[in-house]
Design brief:
Elements (H helix, E strand, L loop, with lengths): L13 H17 L8 H23 L1
Helix pairs in contact: 1-2
Length: about 60
């Protein structure tokens, strides 16, 4: 059985990696971990999440 180390890698598609990076930024904004916590920014994040969910739904239907 392979040993768990910090040098192990996982391979994922580029679009999945981009999605995860975007998701990380959105979560930082929603959790107030930056100077993003104004109402306008939170509303923009909500819209962005809706678009991400829709894109993944469409990709899943193809």
């Amino acid at each position: 059985m392979p040993e768990n180390t910090t040098t192990q890698h996982v391979t994922i598609p580029v679009d999945e990696y981009a999605y995860l990076q975007k998701l990380e930024v959105l979560l930082d904004i929603l959790l107030g971990d930056g100077d993003y916590s104004t109402f306008r920014n939170v509303a923009a994040v909500r819209q962005n999440i809706r678009e991400m969910k829709h894109a993944r739904k469409v990709a899943g239907e193809e």
